[in-house]
Amino acid sequence: MGRPSRHDADHLLDVAVALAAAGGPGAVTAVAVAREAGAPSGSVYHRFPGRSALLAALWLRTVERFQEGFLAALETMPATEAAPTAARHVVAWSRAHPRECGVLLYGAADFGERHWPAEAQERLERANGRVAGALRALAGRLGRDDVERIVIATVDLPYAVVRRHLVSGRAIPESAESTVADCAVALLEAS
């Protein structure tokens, strides 16, 4: 049995998250990840053949981890509870994972999406398609044809609250969860 790797892909991506949170997407290079991880650069290149593959893996792992709970709220909650629960998830996840949230506050394009390997671009398209489908399905379950209002209630509004706190360097208060949930309900009941 071989020795377990000291520098597995998840550890290297954890380091990349920290670099991105501190210095933005430009700070994430194979050399910087290797240096911060205390790993030989070959360990990084063995797992990520180039910077675009590293950035793609960083973005995809982060967004998929976030989307797991977001999708669970949209797809498993009763229709009237789904939007406020999804909005609450955005804030709760962001508070629990401020570095990863910092990554998502950029965007895939900031992480060089157009240069990603085709497989990574397809994976992102599938992930985003699943979210779009879940939002449309929720609109249908609520008997609404305005998906945009649901996107504002579950994505835009909670991210605005999260962004304001993270950009200012302040922790997201626990009360923000109930605030965005209440706003989601009010927005969807207003029409």
TrEMBL record:
Keywords for this protein: DNA-binding
Keyword Protease (UniProt): no
DNA-binding region: 29-48
InterPro entries linked: Homeodomain-like_sf (IPR009057), HTH_TetR (IPR001647)
SUPFAM superfamilies referenced in this protein's UniProt entry, alphabetically: Homeodomain-like (SSF46689)
Keyword Transmembrane helix: no
All residue ranges annotated as the HTH tetR-type domain in the record: 6-66
An example Gene Ontology molecular-function term: DNA binding
PROSITE patterns in the cross-refs: HTH_TETR_2
Residues passing through the membrane, by range: none
Name of the protein: AcrR family transcriptional regulator
